[in-house]
Design a protein that fits this description.
3-methyladenine DNA Glycosylase II, Chain A, domain 3, binds iron/sulfur cluster, 9-stranded mixed beta sheet, 215 residues, 2 domains
């Protein structure tokens, strides 16, 4: 089991978690002597997707999952209808952003830094598309780490998060038109979001009108 968990850790052996190697950190996780957020690199890019897998290996039900019936946001304790996860083969849910600065214009594949309106956390993302003032991105992480220091990015400032595209991985699949409360798997705060489902194909949804105010 130690090797299985080690394989899901970053493998940098940097010691920032307080253990000399990722393997030692994995052993400490299994012993209950360390918490997964002790590794600062786990929140970035594809590694964040390993978090629920590690949590399940450690015997937990996954992030925000209190039990089979309740999905609870970590930061606010609110209950969500479902966990929203990336489309198959993608590193995070797709986000559609509207930058408030009309002058910004990153190219596809470039990295951007932004702060979503209503969220205290600075985000980094990779641009997938840019049309009519709406930028589609994959979230990369809360700070610019990426495992390298030489990646350039454009600071695009405050952005309105317009929409998420992803799949319902746990919980109830809603109908089109419903206002929903959901927990994005990649959210660094594991905070419940709200929005309206505007398109669905099975468990795949498009949710618009994203809001961090949940009632
Ligand atoms: S901080 Fe993360 S990457 Fe660095 S040694 Fe610990 S587990 Fe490995």
């Amino acid at each position: 089991m130690t090797q299985e968990i080690t394989d899901l850790l970053p493998g940098y052996n940097c010691g920032e978690c307080g253990y000399r190697q990722c393997r030692d950190f994995a052993a400490a996780l299994l012993e209950g002597e360390a918490e997964l957020d002790g590794c600062p690199h786990m929140a970035y890019e594809k590694l964040a997707l390993n978090i629920p897998v590690i949590q399940q290996l450690l015997g937990g039900p996954g992030p925000g999952i209190k039990d089979s019936r309740h999905i609870i946001g970590v930061i606010d304790g609110l209950e969500a209808d479902f966990v929203f996860s990336p489309l198959p083969g993608e590193p995070s849910c797709r986000e559609d952003l509207h930058p408030f600065d009309p002058e910004v214009g990153p190219e596809v594949s470039e990295y951007v830094r932004y702060r979503p309106l209503g969220c205290p956390v600075t985000h980094f993302a990779r641009v997938l598309d840019m049309k009519r003032g709406i930028m589609t991105v994959h979230l990369v992480g809360p700070i610019h780490r990426l495992g390298r220091d030489d990646v350039a990015f454009e600071d695009i400032g405050l952005c309105m998060v317009m929409a998420f595209d992803g799949i319902v991985s746990k919980g109830r699949v809603p109908d089109v038109g419903q206002t929903v409360k959901f927990l994005p798997e990649h959210c660094m705060m594991q905070k419940v979001h709200s929005g309206v489902v505007v398109h669905s194909e099975g468990s795949r949804l498009r949710i618009e009108g994203i809001d961090l105010k949940v009632w």
